[in-house]
Design a protein that fits this description.
The chain has four helices and two strands; from the N terminus they run H-H-H-H-E-E. By secondary structure, it is α+β, with helices and mostly antiparallel strands. The chain has one domain: Arc Repressor Mutant, subunit A, CATH 1.10.10. The protein has a two-stranded antiparallel sheet with strand order 1-2. The N and C termini lie far apart (53 Å).
Length: 117
Protein backbone atom coordinates (compact mmCIF):
# COMPACT_ATOMS: atom_id res chain seq x y z
CA UNK A 1 0.00 0.00 0.00
CA UNK A 2 1.25 3.44 -0.88
CA UNK A 3 1.43 6.20 1.64
CA UNK A 4 -0.19 9.55 1.00
CA UNK A 5 3.24 11.18 0.59
CA UNK A 6 4.19 8.64 -2.09
CA UNK A 7 0.95 9.28 -3.97
CA UNK A 8 1.46 13.05 -3.80
CA UNK A 9 5.03 12.60 -5.04
CA UNK A 10 3.84 10.49 -7.99
CA UNK A 11 1.17 13.07 -8.81
CA UNK A 12 3.73 15.88 -8.76
CA UNK A 13 5.95 13.94 -11.19
CA UNK A 14 2.98 13.36 -13.51
CA UNK A 15 2.07 17.06 -13.33
CA UNK A 16 5.62 18.03 -14.33
CA UNK A 17 5.59 15.52 -17.19
CA UNK A 18 2.27 16.93 -18.43
CA UNK A 19 3.62 20.48 -18.17
CA UNK A 20 6.73 19.50 -20.17
CA UNK A 21 4.56 17.85 -22.81
CA UNK A 22 2.27 20.89 -22.98
CA UNK A 23 5.32 23.17 -23.30
CA UNK A 24 6.67 21.08 -26.18
CA UNK A 25 3.31 21.09 -27.94
CA UNK A 26 3.01 24.86 -27.51
CA UNK A 27 6.55 25.40 -28.84
CA UNK A 28 5.80 23.25 -31.90
CA UNK A 29 2.59 25.16 -32.54
CA UNK A 30 4.35 28.51 -32.17
CA UNK A 31 7.26 27.43 -34.40
CA UNK A 32 4.72 26.58 -37.08
CA UNK A 33 3.09 29.98 -36.73
CA UNK A 34 6.47 31.72 -36.98
CA UNK A 35 7.30 29.75 -40.14
CA UNK A 36 4.01 30.87 -41.68
CA UNK A 37 4.66 34.49 -40.69
CA UNK A 38 8.18 34.32 -42.13
CA UNK A 39 6.86 32.89 -45.41
CA UNK A 40 4.18 35.59 -45.62
CA UNK A 41 6.77 38.31 -45.06
CA UNK A 42 9.02 36.87 -47.78
CA UNK A 43 6.17 37.21 -50.27
CA UNK A 44 5.10 40.71 -49.17
CA UNK A 45 7.08 43.37 -51.10
CA UNK A 46 5.62 46.18 -48.96
CA UNK A 47 6.77 44.55 -45.70
CA UNK A 48 10.20 43.89 -47.19
CA UNK A 49 10.52 47.49 -48.36
CA UNK A 50 9.57 48.89 -44.94
CA UNK A 51 11.18 46.41 -42.54
CA UNK A 52 13.85 44.28 -44.14
CA UNK A 53 17.02 46.13 -43.20
CA UNK A 54 19.18 43.31 -44.52
CA UNK A 55 17.11 42.67 -47.65
CA UNK A 56 15.45 39.58 -46.20
CA UNK A 57 12.47 38.61 -44.12
CA UNK A 58 12.81 37.78 -40.41
CA UNK A 59 10.77 37.13 -37.26
CA UNK A 60 11.47 38.14 -33.66
CA UNK A 61 10.46 37.14 -30.15
CA UNK A 62 8.10 40.14 -30.20
CA UNK A 63 6.31 38.56 -33.16
CA UNK A 64 6.01 35.33 -31.18
CA UNK A 65 4.60 37.19 -28.14
CA UNK A 66 2.03 38.93 -30.34
CA UNK A 67 1.06 35.57 -31.82
CA UNK A 68 0.66 34.04 -28.36
CA UNK A 69 -1.57 36.92 -27.27
CA UNK A 70 -3.97 36.09 -30.11
CA UNK A 71 -4.46 32.50 -28.88
CA UNK A 72 -7.32 32.26 -26.36
CA UNK A 73 -6.19 28.94 -24.83
CA UNK A 74 -2.66 30.08 -23.88
CA UNK A 75 -1.51 32.20 -20.92
CA UNK A 76 -0.02 35.61 -21.77
CA UNK A 77 3.66 35.58 -22.71
CA UNK A 78 4.65 37.36 -19.50
CA UNK A 79 3.22 34.45 -17.47
CA UNK A 80 5.32 31.87 -19.31
CA UNK A 81 8.76 30.88 -18.12
CA UNK A 82 11.28 33.43 -19.37
CA UNK A 83 13.28 30.63 -21.02
CA UNK A 84 10.30 29.71 -23.17
CA UNK A 85 11.14 32.14 -25.98
CA UNK A 86 14.74 30.94 -25.97
CA UNK A 87 13.47 27.44 -26.62
CA UNK A 88 11.36 28.68 -29.50
CA UNK A 89 14.26 29.68 -31.73
CA UNK A 90 16.78 27.08 -30.50
CA UNK A 91 15.90 24.46 -33.13
CA UNK A 92 15.57 25.12 -36.83
CA UNK A 93 16.33 28.86 -36.79
CA UNK A 94 19.43 30.99 -37.28
CA UNK A 95 20.10 34.54 -36.13
CA UNK A 96 20.49 37.07 -38.94
CA UNK A 97 20.95 40.30 -37.00
CA UNK A 98 19.46 42.67 -34.44
CA UNK A 99 17.01 45.54 -34.41
CA UNK A 100 15.53 47.72 -31.64
CA UNK A 101 12.74 46.04 -29.75
CA UNK A 102 9.41 47.82 -29.65
CA UNK A 103 8.13 46.23 -26.44
CA UNK A 104 7.51 48.49 -23.45
CA UNK A 105 9.78 46.71 -20.97
CA UNK A 106 12.78 46.48 -23.27
CA UNK A 107 13.68 50.20 -23.18
CA UNK A 108 14.85 50.12 -26.80
CA UNK A 109 17.28 47.23 -26.35
CA UNK A 110 18.04 45.24 -29.46
CA UNK A 111 16.35 41.95 -30.14
CA UNK A 112 17.49 39.12 -32.36
CA UNK A 113 16.09 38.68 -35.86
CA UNK A 114 15.59 35.05 -36.94
CA UNK A 115 15.09 33.10 -40.16
CA UNK A 116 14.58 29.35 -40.70
CA UNK A 117 17.71 27.27 -41.34
Amino acid sequence: MSSRAELEFRDSILDRMEADEARGTLLDRLRGAMLLLYAARQRDPEWLANHAKHGRAYVTATDAREELESWPDVPPAEQLNRNFMGGLFRKGWRAVGFHPSGTNGSHGRREMMWEPK
